[in-house]
């Protein structure tokens, strides 16, 4: 799990990032916006439409969180990210999801090289 200093926590912060740009595929949508803070911040929003069971939504959150935790050091400085996974994420392994997120972020030049 990402430490508190690396997470977006406020509802207004999520809304601010969602008003930015978006990249995505059938597994998740990633909203991003550049901020002025010295580090990147990541938020994960799981809709109740992903599953009616909290245990499945929590699994999706844990998978997504582990992906962004592994990629956090590669994110550009000052980038704010909100990830919104779909229920199809449950079909992927952690490494497959990491590769998909990496491809999406590299496509928009959001990772340091």
Automatic annotation (TrEMBL):
- Family statement: Belongs to the RnpA family.
**What would be an example GO MF term here?**
3'-tRNA processing endoribonuclease activity
List the Pfam families hit by this protein, alphabetically.
Answer: Ribonuclease_P
Q: Name one GO biological process term.
A: tRNA 5'-leader removal
EC number(s) stated in the UniProt entry for this protein: 3.1.26.5
Kindly provide the name given to this protein in its UniProt entry.
Ribonuclease P protein component
- State the UniProt keywords alphabetically: Endonuclease, Hydrolase, Nuclease, RNA-binding, tRNA processing
GO terms for cellular component: ribonuclease P complex
Q: How does it assemble?
A: Consists of a catalytic RNA component (M1 or rnpB) and a protein subunit.
Q: Describe the reaction catalysed, as an equation.
A: Endonucleolytic cleavage of RNA, removing 5'-extranucleotides from tRNA precursor
Which species? Answer: Candidatus Daviesbacteria bacterium RIFCSPLOWO2_01_FULL_40_24
What function does the entry list? RNaseP catalyzes the removal of the 5'-leader sequence from pre-tRNA to produce the mature 5'-terminus. It can also cleave other RNA substrates such as 4.5S RNA. The protein component plays an auxiliary but essential role in vivo by binding to the 5'-leader sequence and broadening the substrate specificity of the ribozyme.
The superkingdom listed in its UniProt entry is Bacteria
InterPro entries xrefs: Ribosomal_Su5_D2-typ_SF, Ribsml_uS5_D2-typ_fold_subgr, RNase_P
């Amino acid at each position: 799990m990402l430490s508190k200093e690396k997470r977006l926590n406020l509802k207004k912060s999520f809304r601010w990032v969602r008003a930015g740009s978006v990249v995505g595929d059938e597994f998740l949508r990633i909203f991003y916006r550049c901020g002025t803070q010295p580090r990147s911040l990541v938020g994960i929003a799981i809709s109740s439409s992903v599953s009616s069971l909290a245990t499945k939504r929590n699994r999706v959150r844990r998978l997504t969180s582990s992906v962004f935790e592994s990629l956090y050091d590669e994110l550009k400085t000052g980038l704010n990210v909100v990830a919104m996974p779909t229920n199809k994420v449950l079909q992927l392994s952690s490494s497959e999801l990491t590769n998909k997120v990496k491809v999406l972020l590299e496509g928009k030049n959001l990772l340091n090289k």
